[in-house]
Amino acid sequence: MLTxxxxxxxxxxxxxxxxxxxxxxxxxxxxxxxxxRYQNVSRWLRKASNIQQNKLISNQIDDLLNGLDLCSSDxxxxxxPDQDDIGEWFSGAPSWVRKS
Length: 100
Fold this sequence. Notes:
The protein has 6 helices and no strands. The protein is mainly alpha-helical. The two termini are about 20 Å apart.
């Protein structure tokens, strides 16, 4: 279970990440540990990464897609059926996705 103390620490780290401020390797490992276990933390991490990459909401469609959290955490992660194996492409999914 995600404790209040952990949630506050994670959100503070992600706030710095979104602003482009320094985040240590130890802090990134800490956040990734929780992101692999908790869907909310994974969503927070993707949102912070998108903000950091200056993906500004430019219209209502982008606003809707960002709100639905359909984006990938890797901006270069697109599936190409001619070159990629779909099983390998999904192998990096968080554990909570693989369980479903």
